[in-house]
Amino acid sequence: MGDRKIGAREMGQKLSVSLNDALEPDTAPRTDRPPTFDPLYGFPEGRKPREMKVSMEEMDEWKLKPGQRDYCAHLLIPLMRCQKKYAPLAGHMCDEERHNWDRCEYDDYIMRIKEYEREHRLLQRMKRKAEKQS
Q1: pLDDT category of residue 3 using cuts at 50, 70 and 90
Q2: What is the count of structural domains for the chain?
Q3: Separation CA 134–CA 131 (nearest Å)
């Protein structure tokens, strides 16, 4: 095969979150604000809405911190329940609950990256269209 090294960009693993955001702030999505574009734009069939599966009262009852009150809280509570039940030997007793919660957190992270990438590409597209019209 040779000594040619394949870069991340060639492998399809390059994220837009990079130095380009600092160099081109007009196409960098703002993560501290809601999306600029309609979430259904480009989805003619619609999208499945994300919903919280745990109530605020239940999260308060388990004293979840603000960073834990996400779309995976419904899996964190059973993990905490298991850890409480088997403490201090909960390490191996709660593997399934830990796996389920970790998987949900990973999937949520991937979803946020995809949403960021979508917003970035739509901002770049809007900029290209504006430049063509000028």
Answers
A1: very low
A2: 1
A3: 5
